[in-house]
Amino acid sequence: MTDTTVLIAGGGIGGMALALTLHQIGVPCQVIESVSELRPLGVGINIQPNAVRELFDLDITEQDLDRVGVSAKEWALVGLNGNQIYSEPRGRDAGYKWPQYSVHRGKLQMMLYHKVLDRLGAEAVTLGQRVTAYENNADDTVTVTLRDGDGVTSTRTCRVLVGADGIHSAVRAQMVPEQPPIHWGGAIMWRGTSKAKPIRTGASFVGLGTHRHRLVFYPISAADPETGLADINWIAEVTVDAENGWPSSDWNRKVSHQDFVHHFENWTYDWLDVPALLRSAETVYEYPMTDRDPLATWQDGRVILIGDAAHAMYPTGSNGASQAIVDARVLGARFVTHGITQAALADFDATLCGPVSELVLRNRGAGPFGILNLVDERCRGEFDHINDVIAPRELTDFMARYKAAAGLAIDGLNAQPNTIAMGSCVDLSL
Known about the structure:
Elements: E1 6-9, H1 13-24, E2 29-33, E3 44-47, H2 49-57, H3 62-66, E4 69-71, E5 74-78, E6 84-89, E7 101-104, H4 105-120, E8 125-127, E9 129-136, E10 142-148, E11 153-158, E12 160-163, H5 170-175, E13 183-196, E14 204-210, E15 213-219, E16 230-239, E17 253-255, E18 268-269, E19 272-273, H6 274-279, E20 284-291, E21 299-300, E22 303-305, H7 307-311, H8 320-338, H9 342-364, H10 370-379, H11 392-405, H12 410-415
Parallel strand pairs: 1-2, 1-12, 2-8, 5-14, 12-22
Antiparallel strand pairs: 3-7, 4-7, 5-6, 9-10, 10-11, 13-16, 13-20, 14-15, 15-16, 17-20, 18-19, 21-22
Helix pairs in contact: 1-4, 1-8, 2-8, 8-9
């Protein structure tokens, strides 16, 4: 079967954002997703202003985002003794033209999925099939092998295949068969959602502890007007010796509170009872914090990688989903410029592969949480006044360098033109 479409392997946030982008610029496409039913799975994530900007350009509204999350107001770090290390406003409060959102990952994915169905039609998403292989053809097409849940295989031929199939990407595995295994640096994360009263601004992202032993938490819903309670997403994290690899065969398993709360048993403050917060979650999952080593290129002929398939990264900078959305928009912009061609893929690769690979390594080195490393080195996380440990200018310079590397420098982002000019359309004859 021969198509003139772009085939997207993977129906996650990046894949759905790309489908909406391609529809906006007049490119026929189809999403191939392995699960037979999409459900709102996952926990909280942050969508940075650079990605919210792109969602707005896709006619995703603030009202849409308010239904799946909350506009973030602050990012803060707190030491082991509960004293503040650093804080800064986020989103529009920081001077960006766009907000930052803390959202439920699964709800965001489902919202994008329903936008795809509404705009492109139900036939634009095929569920229950997995892309398992591809072949670049001499006639400037790609033949893609699919397998369904019963093991039945079929093929599709398209002009471009986009691998948006996540950290375990089959497309990437064929593109780079000699790639090292998934990288785990020793950090174990326990993730859950609890009902609690938001603290500080009411929409604050707070990191508490040290770089090897910390809790991150933030609301992903507005507080209930009657109870004052919101859905608080939290990640409890401990770093151990990773020499022998991940000790479990399961990379995402449900655990009981007794398996991990003891690591945080003494973390009680007048403004937060950490053990109580952790124990109030109905369901807790354990994950290793993983990424993949950067690649020299994300392109193989008429095949390109985006999202976690291209650059799975530690969540320390809240960049993963945001970068997947930006990937989709930049790829769409290159199609506008070059048509559905290898030149478009090469331009996309040249624009993003190098800088985003550097971001992967920066996040592996703790990302913005590297401030906790500095504090830990100088005082083991215990201090009365942070200015006695680290100068305010050093903190602001550290964050400025990270924002610049992540494409989040306020003035630069605010001054950028739209990634895709309104009304742009791709010349499909190219």
